[in-house]
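A note from the maintainers: we've had questions about how concatenated examples are separated. There is no special marker in the raw files; a new sequence line simply starts the next protein. For clarity in this README we add a label.
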Amino acid sequence: MALHIFNTLTRRVEPFVPREPDRVRMYTCGPTVYRFVHIGNLRSYLMADWLRRALLAEGYAVQHVKNITDVGHMRQEMLDRGEDKMIAAALAEGKTPADIAAFYTAAFLRDEERINILPATVYPRATEHIAEMVEIAERLLANGHAYEVGGNVYFAVSSFAPYGRLSGNLPRELLEGVRAEADPLKRNPADFALWKAAEPGRTLKWDSPWGPGFPGWHIECSAMSIKYLGPHLDVHTGGVDNIFPHHEDELAQSEACFGPPFVGYWVHGQHLLADGLKMAKSTGNAYTLDDLIARGFEPLDLRYLCLTAHYRARLNFTFAALRAARVARWRLQQRIWDWVDVANSAPDGPVLGPSGEAARERFWAAVRDDLHVPRALGVVWQMASSDLAPGEKLALVRDFDRVLGLDLTRDVAARPKVPADVAALVAERAGLRARRAYGVADALRERARAAGFVVGDAPWGMRVRPALRPDALVGCFSTARDVPSRVDEPPARELSILLHVYGWRADVERCVASVLRAADLGACNGEVVVVDSQSERDDGWLDELATHEPRVRVLRPDHPLGEGEGRNVALKQALGRTLVLMDTSVEATGDFVTPLLAALADDAIGVAGPWGLRSHNLRQFEEATGGEVDAMQLYCFAFRRERVGEIGLMDEKFRYYRHVDLDYSFRFRDRGYRVVALPDLPLVRHEHRGWEELSHEERDKRSRRNFYRFLARWGTRYDLRVPESAQHSG
């Protein structure tokens, strides 16, 4: 069976037949080097790596080009507004765009090496191929597929009849075919830029026949792929988010310039989600390889995890799944070490028998079936658990690893050596087992485990292996579901102050210190529970505080949680009779606890706090600092713990802090409880960095998403009219 692959252009799995019998021209869309690549990007590059390895295993000579986009398409005014803070900060430090690109290019190449992606034959830089891009634009102008307006050159989509066949987006259905607002200079909104005129103040620009400017987003790949591979490629890979508009436009301009076919096989990998969400910097889940390493994982753990899902299926990344991949890879590695020990002692080399040959055929059949590496990985485990001789297993895994790329036999010599004291325990255990003293022998095995080594028994004798310690990985839980609930337990304390931390150490220190001073937690038997959801680990000061301050507990997930989920972790673990949800932007200047406890002594009051909200239409809310209100803001939100069993936990769909407090307030009101604002509580609000440090666009996007979720739930169900007598009661 020959290699078959799904072709996005034809939407079917096809036998792979390159233009030349023994050579494959392969192009992969590489990174834009102004930030670290995240693991979602790496999944796309892993897909290309497995395809390339499969082609090499089939005997093809593969010429692989992977571009480095070091031009950048962000307009200068976006930098000036701070739209990309990373670049803006670098420029403020005196670093040039070339410095920034060089730094992140090196980081990308390092990541690829660490995750064992074969290096491309060529890594062309966009800035080194401006002349080729200009030449393509000139040819398209000359043959009527492009036009120039004000120093900008646009591709005329209407001039290319097959436009839309890759993505299915037909020109008449398009409103806009680029990542930008509608351009009034275009003849057709679907047209896309081949060359852009440089705006005043732009740093990156080049001379052209149309004046100073810079290339469009899509023309870079056409220019670089065609220069190194010619106008007709065998394979072009990328993520599904590249299909439109990037690859659709790349196909159109390339075939309009040089004739069809531009690419024989378009191969696209699906998204890597994180806890069910698309990876994005704004969501806080765009993890990098360094993020995983900082949590105790190894780069190849991610490679193994990505092997468990087909490249055309979405893969939901969680740290729990990564831990499982870590354990599975380690267990496979342990078995291979055993096979090596036995095979090295065998007098003759391995010869595959019928069962071994059958396993080998099943593995390669899975690889050739549209790169089905999850099924191939299953064959590896079936083979590992079979009755094949260790030498046969070792020969097979070496063959399979040509595609898997897990380096399963490379680090055999580097495995931890068994220390003399552990070796002595093992020898003593063997003697005890020979005398059938199994109880004492088992005790010695546990002593070896405590020293970091696992002692086991195999058909070929006793084995000693270094033990994996998953508990040593940073983070003990990934979701609120992983955290046991203590809500139904009797309260062990009178008060719990609950914080969800996203960083900003100075704010957290100020808030915690002020609460410890003002609340007299010792007298009221209180505690502070901190859910540390920041993605960048601090220097351990929170853990140190909790060590020396028995009133503080720190709960640390292995990745940043959304607002609702992070608050739920605290709610599930709180031990106080009264719970106070507080924001780290708040500072206590006096005893705020006594008034809250007094208010909540009234069974009719469900929620109390200083900063309430009133509304008459659910769309506009005004702050109210006294009397009965419609909702309480999450800056300080107090209620009795027993209500959690009745009201329930927060809705974890609210990932941003805005409007989660409205929803939770209305949950109390829906049960008939009053929400009351207490005037003059000794609490001060400082700048809320979760709001202030976002761009206006990002604030609006996150707030709207939460608001419409709130409005859909309560907009037609709730009468906001409050009796006049209640509006002024305290």
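[label: protein 2]
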Amino acid sequence: MFASIRSVALILALPAAAFAQGNRGLDVRDLVNFDRLSSPVLSADGQRVVYVVRMTDFDANRGFSHLAYKDLRTRDLAPPARLTPEGFNVNSPSFSGDGSTVYFLADKSGSMQLWAQAIGAEPVQVTDYPLDVGSYKLAPDGSKVALTFDVFPYCADLTCTKAALDKVASDKSSGQLYEKLFARHWDTWADGRRSQLFVARLVAGKSAGEPVKLSINIDGDIPAKPFGDSSDYAWSPDSTQLAFSVRIAGTTEAWSTNFDIYRVAADGSAPPVNLTAENLAWDAGPVFSADGKTLYYRAMSRPGFEADRFQLMAMDLDDGDTSRIAKRWDRSADGIALSADGRSIYTTAQDMGQHPLFAIDIKSGEARRVAADGSVSGFDLAGDTLVFARDSLGSPAQIFVARADGSAVRDLSQANAERLAPVAMGAFEQFSFEGYDDDTVYGYVVKPWNYKAGEKYPVAFLIHGGPQGSFGNGWSTRWNPQTYAGQGFAVVFIDFHGSTGYGQDFTDSISGDWGGKPLKDLQKGWSHALDRYDFLDGKRACALGASYGGFMVNWIAGNWNAPWKCLVNHDGIFDNRSWGYATEELWFSEWENGGTPFAEPKAYEKFNPARFVDQWQVPMLVVQGQLDYRVPFDQGMAAFTALQRRGIESRFLYFPDENHWVLKPQNSVQWHDTVNEWLRRWTAVK
């Protein structure tokens, strides 16, 4: 239980554009067409910065990305200029050691390859392999580059994998035979390939010869799938070794979270050596110290639990001794970057409804917020220069430059100014209340864009997924509260028990209790919000959620349906027991329910929404993607079937080409238009 109970309201700092007095609210067409800024990186001297700008071609129904560049030594206030030319769709920028050249991945040649562009020159293709380059990282001395490729384990070279893929493509039979899990993962069926780590020499700016495979005898993916990246591996400062994180698959991949960190010689002269074999939980994100004597990384302590706290670790590479850094800092670190003097670790973490950037003193463990308010989604550090991407509930991401201590912050990017000018964002506020067992629980309220004192407004009550996640002070391109505020709704959302950023005990508290403490928090939070904010019309409210939020909508339908005029369930679990067999990452369902469905059937049934369909009565919109293998299609179809057989007004929005998320621009517009129409339909009458 939290020690202090108090009711607070915090008005949070926003960029000026966030509360600009535009003449209309935010629309989904604004949302999908905003430029999206990410991946800021600095040259080693801290004088140059590049970042990715993703733009949307709405008619083509796709996004494309370029790099923006700024020389920080200039004193002009103009925003960064475009670096990469038209026709290049790029990602993953990095600088050469001397800062004169920018490297990136691009598909300009017809496959994803590594390119380089000297400042002021045209791009040059660095690699020309028969397979796509999945990720890369330049060696510190610039003589070689680490690359990852998806390859068949039996192949001795890249050409072998390409030939095998061509053969499969020409085969007239389509059956695929599986002997173990994963058979499918996230939105992709397995085809036997593994992402593996290689090193290629660089000669006169081009890759030379067949790359050398380093992940010898490693049955696992580097980077991890589906969301791993080049932070899963790192070069030693002398460019002679690499460290990487990987989960050895075997037959337990679908229910194991045991990632280990391996060290390997960069010439591939010997198999990798496991450095963290003693820890059977997740070890991730290796980073070498400047002298190469210490390896910093993040580690969980409980096998099988993906939402355990990532603690900061240091390993002496001479004797293998490990120590924990910042033991008392009860937050889960997202990554590791070292300060110039090697005395601090910079990392982001969920924190009380925000996602700040922290500096952690390695010796004392003291944690200090360097960039607070809002959500820092990416950053880089070079000398005394810091660059970071930050967004908020009132603004999409902007790129900021500051000193390493977080002072002298300035907005470098000034992005989306013209698109933001006519838009009035809804003002927002964080509040707290006494939730389950009188613990302090936090939430947010967002006013409609056209708020007028004394009037009441219909409410969209948003429920976050995860469930170990958070709806806080950040911008989303999918579940964005401002899209509802832009339609004239007030918005309320609660970080119930199980949410991240409030200490590990709070996060742990949801496991085995999906319909218990979180439901109490939602009920108490809703009651508190109605009492506190007189502009909320509690008689015209709908509850919405996706993933775990969709589960909770299904659970609410049978256990707390009285307040709601309508419900929206996106990719939500309907039958917990069947989901336990059908989902792909089994470690998640098995941890949350205390075991397998056959070993713990009562646990799966305890909070099973399918048990309470006889109590359903509120109109519900169900949304489901065919390519969703986390919460498979049958869960949405079953919920819609239950609604139809109960005679409850309902609709089913089906996307044959989307996964757990709705990503395509025109699909996103259809999703929002359908949801907004559903909300308006049921909340129009006071």
